[in-house]
Amino acid sequence: VRRPWMGEKIVTPHGTNPRDVVTAGVVLQSVAPGSPAARAGLEAGDEIIAVRGKRVKNIFEWEAERLDMRVGEQVALTVRKGGRERQLSV
Fold first, then answer.
1. What is the pLDDT of residues 44-76, one digit of tens each?
2. Residue 74: DSSP 8-state
3. pTM of this prediction?
4. What is the Cα–Cα distance from 11 to 45, expressed in whole angstroms?
5. For residues 73 and 77, what is the distance between their CA atoms, to the nearest angstrom?
6. Is the dihedral of CA 14, 15, 16, 19 positive or negative?
7. End-to-end CA distance of the chain
8. Distance set, CA 22 to CA 45, 76, 89, 90 (Å)
9. SS3 at position 6
10. What letter would DSSP give residue 79?
11. Do residues 25 and 46 lie in contact, with contact meaning Cβ atoms separated by under 8 Å?
């Protein structure tokens, strides 16, 4: 089985309130050097806010989008960096 790999690690939200997890967003904890995510310009602290134009609000929605990705496919991301939104292709 071949699975797509971007080289990103997402911050895992902590808290006792389940709503915190659902509204935590998708924030990058780290990016592997030389990975597709790094080549696209993603960095730790960036927030992924949309995949292929579809909003993602939490890690569950991010993982659902990742399940639809294919090896070698270009994926359009909307990322918030320092308060500004950027369009990237990974």
1. 999 999 999 999 999 999 999 999 999 999 999
2. -
3. 0.85
4. 9
5. 13
6. negative
7. 21
8. 18, 23, 25, 25
9. coil
10. E
11. no
Please report the pLDDT score of residue 14 as a whole number: 75
Q: How far apart are CA 76 and CA 36, in angstroms?
A: 12
What are the backbone dihedrals phi and psi of residue 65, each rounded to the nearest 5 degrees, phi first?
-65, -40
**Token pair for residue 61?**
């929605």
- 21 in Cβ contact with 11 (< 8 Å): no
Can you give the three-state secondary structure of 10-73, one letter per residue?
ECCCCCCCHHHHHCCCEEEEEECCCCHHHHHCCCCCCEEEEECCEECCCHHHHHHHHHCCCCCC
Residue 39 CB contacts under 8 Å (≥ 6 apart), including other chains: none
